[in-house]
């Protein structure tokens, strides 16, 4: 009896001590509520460190095998692939993740997994743009868009992944010409974030802008009236609906090679694709669930159904370098 009591006491201490250490490039308010729910459900404590993605990846490289981190959560597939290529992720065997997440939104070798989807789309001024003139990313280099486009700099990873998708679909040479045409059609030198591009359209600096869907969603549902009023003055257009579909990207996660709490880490990543977590992404972060059959917010619903490019996101990471080089050669600042 005494030995059984000691055994049960030890088990309870292990359960109480269960924890998982998360490095997140997502802002605390966009991930912590989910992590708190995970703790409520499992009793596993989550220790959260937030910083910019490149800072976290560099930190992991420096910490090496001594890193306390179990899970990295970040945005954009290029960063996920970079982490994998540095040998910082480990391969996971999880039927739940493999069955839940479509193949194009996870690593073929099961080191990283998409958690939520975002798309890089066109927003436009309905007063100054005839929607019938919009069709595709490729169409943006036409002469009728000269001096009318706002977009972020070539150093922005979202633009790099968009261009990488064009390289994968159209080839390097054609995409290099496309990038030159884009630069000719810029209304101004690239500056600011995606919200700034939306504001520039409303201010009349440009007529169309290329932005991630969740920025528009966040502005539309903002508590700040000036933000929502600005966002209501633009419309969203899904490019390439008559051919391959609109470019997609992910926020994602992986379990790190040096993870001291591997089992807890796997449970956390699996929790992040649960129905509850996926619905939360759609409502709070204005991102699309990576899992099918999840109810999305009224804002996302209002944008209608769309055809998504089925390209494996692994291809975006592989084509990141040529994309960056051709953007530089095109003079995309």
Major beta-sheet overview:
9 strands, mixed
Number of strands: 9
**Strand/helix succession:** HEHEHEHHEEHHHEHHEEHHEHHH
In DSSP terms (H or I, runs of 4 or more residues), the helix count works out at: 15
| Shape descriptor | globular
Secondary-structure-derived class: alpha/beta
Helix content: 40-55%
What key attributes describe this structure?
333 residues, alpha/beta, 9-stranded mixed β-sheet, 15% strand, globular
Question: What are the SSEs and their pairings?
Answer:
Layout: H1 2-17, E1 19-24, H2 32-42, E2 45-50, H3 53-63, E3 71-75, H4 77-85, H5 95-100, E4 113-124, E5 149-150, H6 157-170, H7 172-185, H8 194-203, E6 208-212, H9 213-220, H10 225-231, E7 235-237, E8 248-255, H11 262-271, H12 275-285, E9 288-289, H13 298-302, H14 314-318, H15 320-329
Helix pairs in contact: 6-7, 6-15, 7-15, 9-10
Describe this structure as you would to a colleague.
This protein has 333 residues and is an alpha/beta fold. Helices cover 44% and strands 15% of the residues. It has 15 helices and nine strands. It has helices at 2-17, 32-42, 53-63, 77-85, 95-100, 157-170, 172-185, 194-203, 213-220, 225-231, 262-271, 275-285, 298-302, 314-318, 320-329; strands spanning 19-24, 45-50, 71-75, 113-124, 149-150, 208-212, 235-237, 248-255, 288-289. Strands 1, 2, 3, 4, 5, 6, 7, 8 and 9 form a nine-stranded mixed sheet that branches. It is globular. The chain starts with a helix and ends with a helix. 44% of the residues are buried. Residues 8-16 have low confidence and may be disordered.
